[in-house]
Amino acid sequence: MTLKTPPYWSAACDHLMQRDRVMNKLIPQFPNACLQSRGDPFTTLARSVIGQQISVKAAQAVWDRFAALMPTMEPAQLLRLKVDDMRAAGLSARKVEYLVDLALHFDNGTLRPDDWPGMDDEAIIKQLVAIRGIGRWTAEMFLIFYLMRPNVLPLDDVGLIRGISLNYFSGDPVSRSDAREVAAAWAPYCSVATWYIWRSLDPVPVAY
Question: Locate the HhH-GPD domain: which residues (predicted)?
Fold first, then answer.
């Protein structure tokens, strides 16, 4: 599967480096890396459901075992899987339920990816959080990693809050309003700044 990169990336980096002293130091440390999208909404959402509340490394291991159960990663294929096989791949009973509900939303046409390019971020989040197991954080990861929306600020993301604490407040605790204040300088490229904050904690980019 080909990976897509956002067309606005270099303009965003220039903007952030001019507006923010931390970004000015951080961005040049990762010269050849940028956000990449797999271009497949079902896979992106399934990966983010599996990744909830576990480490990146554990999520990758479970994903690899889960993906091996299907010839292709498609909603109709997932709906044919046995629950026991999905549990044996390392999925909790709840995550199995969430993945089945996700597959049903795609399979029955409740989700229409063709409509998303014309919708704003909040409208898409509202549609996604109607699916079991998808909360605001997962919807925001989807906006960043699949739709590559440039100005998403995922305040529920522990990595973002921790990274702001370390990079801007010398490790002191940070509230959501503190984070929002820091991010005021990032607009309209909060997604890009968030991505570099994540890199400051873990140099290896995550892909959903």
Answer: 50-202
